[in-house]
Amino acid sequence: MKKLLVLILLIAFVSPLFAFDFFATLDDEEGQVGTEPAKPKELTSLFVEGFGTYYPLDEDEPFDYGISLGVTFEENRDKIRTEVDFSFSPILRDPLDVRTLAVTFFFGPTNLKVGMFTHPWGTSTTLHAVDILNSQNLTHGILDNPEAMKKSEFMIVYNAYFKRSSLDLIIKPFYRPIDMEASDRYAPMDTDNLMGTSFSYGGMEIPIDSDNIRVGIYQHPTFWKALGGGGRYRFGIGDLDLGFMYFSSFYPQMGFDIGAKLKMKPHPLDPNPQNPTQYIPDKVEVTSIDFDFTRYHLAGTEGSLLVGPVTIAWEGGLFLSEDVKGEKPEKYNTKIAAVVELSYTEPKTSFFASAAYQGQYLFGDVTPTVNQTLDVIIPVDYIASFLSDKPYSSSVAVAFEMPFMRERLKVRMAATYGIENQGLVALGSLSYEINDSFSVYARGAYYNGFGDKKSLFKNWENNSSVTIGMNAWF
Amino acid sequence: MKRVFIMLLLILIPALIIAAPSAALIMDKVIETQKADTAAMDLKLTLIEANGTERERRIQTLSQTVDDKTSIITVFLSPESVKNTRFLSVEGNDATEQWIYLPALKRVRKISATEEGGSFMGSDFSYSDMASTTYDADEATHRLIEETATTYVVESIPKTVKSYGKNIATVDKETFLPLKVEFYAPDEKTLLKTLTTLETGTVGTRPITKMVEMKTIVTGHATRLEMVQVRYDVPIPAAYFTVRFLETGRL
Questions:
Q1: Looking at the predicted structure, is the pLDDT value of residue A409 above 60?
Q2: How many pairs of residues across A and B have Cβ atoms under 8 Å apart?
Q3: pTM for the predicted model, two decimal places
Q4: Which burial class, exposed, middle or buried, applies to A43 when counting CB atoms under 10 A from its CB (0-12, 13-18, 19+)?
Q5: Assigned CATH for A118-473
Q6: How far is A263 from chain B (nearest CA, A)?
Q7: I need a surface site. Which of A36, A155, A172, B171 has the fewest CB within 10 A?
Q8: In whole angstroms, what is the distance from residue B238 CA to residue A8 CA?
């Protein structure tokens, strides 16, 4: 902690607040008028955020609070850029969150970036199908900026730019699975939800009992075995931008290998209830859950087309899984996924609005079954499709952002609805800039839905919240 | 009476014929004075509330005109909420293409081009004001309405009315810099904004306005625009006006 503080102080006071400067790159010829001296090429910001949240439907833990200290540092030299961006939140389980720790080497129209960072793929804004290079962090719930839900990962990215096209090649030596709480508010769905509430078997609905579950974890894919890599080529023709990509890696979501027993009970029509001889299924008792990680190969495309004032963006791809036939319950099945988004950006007012549809179709059998040997088989893609008993899942999302009061006040709204699982999340925020380095905000998150409301988080509705907070920059 | 009227016409008509091209010439000269093949500007915008509260925005912009087609790249340096946002506009033969890089999304997005209206970064300048605050001879009908020892006062009525119905510019006779511009609503009577030059200077032999203030009459809100650094007609690498620069922020 002391070292961190010293580092922050050093960065804060050694480097003045300035950004990359056009003027440093121009020939120093006559014709310049300046009221300020030439600038250094470092940029440092200190950032403090504090917030308090009220969960009106959560009787156990209705209040939460947090504070974090962030630092961004960027140094631009002739051929090298160094970037550091991290935050420290003392009350979090993982207090240090490194968002960027990277060095970029520039060679003419190409560059090589090495370190921890996020590298986006895809052309849409709210929902994605091929933005798979960084796994997600779901420990803070669902946020209105998909980029803020990403985890940085160690990558080596080579970018090459041509006249109207570009190529990026990526190597990911390590593997970071999706980040989810083991318990607490934003833990994954509890085992009742995980398994569904009942199975249809032999004409009966068999409830699931999930007491005394052994939860194990498989070893993450280790170095070299975890090696992922691929590339993307993008080009533009008029108002059409198109890209194609290939990537091989592991699904960031873990698969579940579920062990279970089918418990029997005496048949109600047994003539001798004191000493029964006839039994019927009573409940499924889940005994263990183990995790596994599945390699896949993505062949995908992304594109956007400007039609008048509207941008049509699309992403789609085939995720060819190790378990091509969907025979192994703990493995992800092969699937196709796609997103279509319509968006509008008004440069005069910075108004932005979008509407998107996302869908995925899973190949192979995804229906939960209880087989003859009384094993429960629940393919993980069944869970991934949010427990709908269909081989597909889809969702829609809408979002808009609008500044008011000469950009002092910003209003953002976003909502997403799972068509099959009928889960709804609506997010809204107001932020008000008191001055250039201090702003306050109010955020609301509304988790609801229809039907069974089976969802990603075990406390779905209870996560509805109201947050007030402040941001300060130094 | 009739003879007097004819005589007045004979006197006035040549005067009007002479005055009209003169006013157009003045405004052409104003545009010409500010014209450059390339320009690099480091600008500070100070947003001033009616109660005197100030907020600052800092941008750098490069522009390049080749064959009458202008490309502009703008980088937003501050405040934090817009820092590192980059905006590229490339004028083509048929239309202008525009892209924006949003650091929060880490993506470049192509957007529809816009020409007029809209507040630039919450300031009192519209996007069209940032391009030019006066009209050239082709864009408007100009009339010299006053001449003093040091200034011309020219009224300009745009041929196509968009944001403004009329401008009245006070132009320095020596430098042809606009010292004051009044912007009127399309009804040509309601004064919307006033632009006042606070400081002038030179870059080489070129006269420039170093600091101006635009005030919105109804709200009392004002924006002071200061040229922190400026260079004209310096070589600017074409690589600045590319999507590569938008994405990487580097040449």
A1: yes
A2: 160
A3: 0.81
A4: buried
A5: 2.40.160
A6: 51
A7: A36
A8: 38
